[in-house]
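ok posting inputs for the pyridoxal-5'-phosphate job
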Amino acid sequence: MDEYGSTGEGRAARRDEAVRAAVEQGLLGPDTPVVGLLDVTGIRESAAELRAAFDGVTAPGTPVLHAFAVKASPLVPVLRLLREEGIGAEVASPGELALARAAGLSPDRTVLDSPAKTPSELREALALGIAVNADNPQELDRIDGLMLPHSPKGMGGAPMAVSRSPLGIRVNPQVGGGSIGATSTATATSKFGVALRDEGAREWVVRAYLDRPWLSRLHAHTGSQGIPLSLMTQGVAETYALAEEINRRIGRPQIDTIDIGGGLPVNFASDVTTPTYAEYARALREAVPGLFDGRYGLVTEFGRSLLAKHGTIVARVEYAKSAGGRPIAVTHAGVQVATRTVYVPGSWPLRIAAYDAKGRPRSGPEVVQDVAGPACFAGDLLAEGRALPLLDQGDYVAALDTGAYYFAHHYAYNSLARPGVYGFAPDHSAPDRAGGVRFATVRDPQTLASIVAESGGAHAGALTTLHASGSG
Ligand SMILES: *Cc1c(COP(=O)(O)O)cnc(C)c1O
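and the output
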């Protein structure tokens, strides 16, 4: 899809243009020293690649819902853009469901997964007709109470009409973890889903379907960043085999849809997109041909792979200093926008690009230096000992591939404000204007008033007026 092939050169060129235009148009500057930028062209390309990859391997007419994992980029305009590209939403909290609804996603394009759904969340999802994957036997019990109005397990309140929500169970095929423990969901002791290889678990799952004709889906999400394709494919193969076993034992195709989760890893080492959706889809068809012969509808839940490469954090170098012989650029991007990278740098390294004060790529000999964030602890480093053209005061640094799980995942350390987020696209109407790039506000920068309000500003006297009343 990339105009230069799959090397990502088109994307890199668009990014450089956007950084320069952001400086020229004043989105970035001394008073707004950090922003998140989203490449709308790139997001559309990835969505098209995802659709094409699965269209290329499924039997004609197979229902396929690509549900974007909202947690990867919980921004309403992003969800709306993806909706326009035919992508639904996978939500895992009341907040994420509210975002999906605000973006206009319909219940039939929405899937609810979460390991800790409350009774009221389940009730709402079933009332709306949203697909739900039950995480564990206790949750299935709660769903029973909602689906069987006369059940003694009724959950209080009026019994509801039988829901049209497609319902399934999440299983953990326990195929093992990848290189990053925190994103490995198919380990033996993962907190997610029904652990299929535990004693009696497989039989429990089969019985659950035998007893509930309304259970029509099966779900697994076997991991995120750090999981090799072969392990993802194995997780899907085991899930498919279980669906086949269940349908065989019931004697009819009660499971009509398999939700294969997301988790396609992202290459953070260069602009090249690898692996691609097409590679994953082909690997799946090779390993699990029956999944694509038209008997099953499919749901996917990709997050990081749809957005990561289309986002860039750009931050101003406030000061350039030196300590113990090490040059240090003190910037405005640190733990508040790159939390995982700062706390676990070995697992989440980010590429850094250097720009001069006018937003043009910085040239010059590379010097080993630290790129520090603004937070008040020594470990707040975006990159440590990185070879880059020597950064100077007033320059800009860009943290690349940060469109998922970064600037939309603010961490409120030091009460640092959430940066503004802007989408960009080539401006064909005014090609000579400021780099020929147009921006649209995705999210305004957080104001100081909002920080105070979110920090108990309305309750300033709450603690000083709390007397030990009544306790003598
Ligand atoms: C996080 C998550 C996803 C998305 O994972 P990515 O690695 O971002 O693709 C999909 N499904 C579930 C259930 C998840 O928890």
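notes: The first strand starts at residue 34 and ends at 39. Residues 93 and 104 are 17 Å apart (CA to CA).
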